[in-house]
Queue: 3 jobs
Job 1
Amino acid sequence: TMLPGGFSLAHRLDKDTSGALLIAKNEETLEFLRKQFQERTVGKEYLCLVEGEIKKRGTIETLLGRSPQDRRKQKVFLPGEPGAEGKREAKTEYRVKKNYLDYTFLEVTPRTGRKHQIRVHMQHLGHPIAGDRLYGFKNQRIPEGLTRQFLHANSLSFALPNGKRASVESLLPEELKLVLAKLATS
């Protein structure tokens, strides 16, 4: 996507997801960064708040593809399941940062870069992201003060043309910190 001033996005974030985003100043840099995303050499860390209690770290490995019931959504397919042919592998790792009453704050590392991957994987686990209107459960409760899905791209690490690695970090926005602060006192 071309931005004002001739800059281009090297990747995308879902609508209503905040956080770190890589922008290229020229075509050469854009291709250099996009190749790393395609080869899965960009390190990505997200922070999210999910419904329910998760006690320990884990990994979710499934196939992902467009939902036949709702074209806006992605769907988990398991190998051998009808409709799974041609679907793409997706792998997400997660670690518990803090448990709250009825919610868990997670650090999530997507090892692949599929559309809506973290959101659909958390739903598949039975713990949709708080405030997610597309993948949340019917009648799901939303924490006080949350006006969007609680998903934030916390950091990205990538190679520079000189071979060294660089990383960028985006601190959790104040609006999301306030949601956690209110949960801590409830």
Note: The CA atoms of residues 10 and 180 lie 31 Å apart.
Job 2
Amino acid sequence: IKDLRSGKIDGVVASTIWDQGVDITEIKTLILAGGGKSPIRNLQRLGRGLRISKGKSHLEAYDFYDNSTRWLKNHSNERKKLWISEGFDISIEEL
């Protein structure tokens, strides 16, 4: 966390241990690769980067729409509905 704050490192891969209680306002890009459909957990994860910081005007967040199984597609749809209901500007790109 100290190295991320100071700019010594540009990124970190975090597990669910960072889902709650971590405050790093300097996060500018967030890649959500954990999946799931819990609105609370997903908003908390996004919240890691939504905090205001000097020199930061926005957050770029990337979520993956996984339609490889019915279960994962359902979770992806729930997250998409959440981002829309919260008023986030989203764009969908297909690979």
Note: The beta strands are 29-32, 60-63.
Job 3
Amino acid sequence: MTHPLIPQIVKMASPVAAQLGLEVVDATFHTNQYPPVLRIDIRNLHQDTSLDDCESMSHALEATLDAADLIPDAYVLEVSSPGIPRTLSTDRDFISFKGFP
């Protein structure tokens, strides 16, 4: 089940990602951990996603989330690439990985 804040977080994170040439692929909020972990998966639209992409997105999104004060308590922001075993969920995913097992 998706956390109720996820749609708002994705709505805020998507323009931040676009400014960096990135795309938000997925977001999850693990509230069963202490502190809770907000994980944002990103993809570079022009090349393989790098650690620098994740770091840039983390810093930019952190400022945006802090300004919005959407999450009132302490949490960990984790920005990552979705990696190889991710689920294909959009038309773009199917086009990108067509022909691969």
Note: The first helix runs from residue 6 to 19.
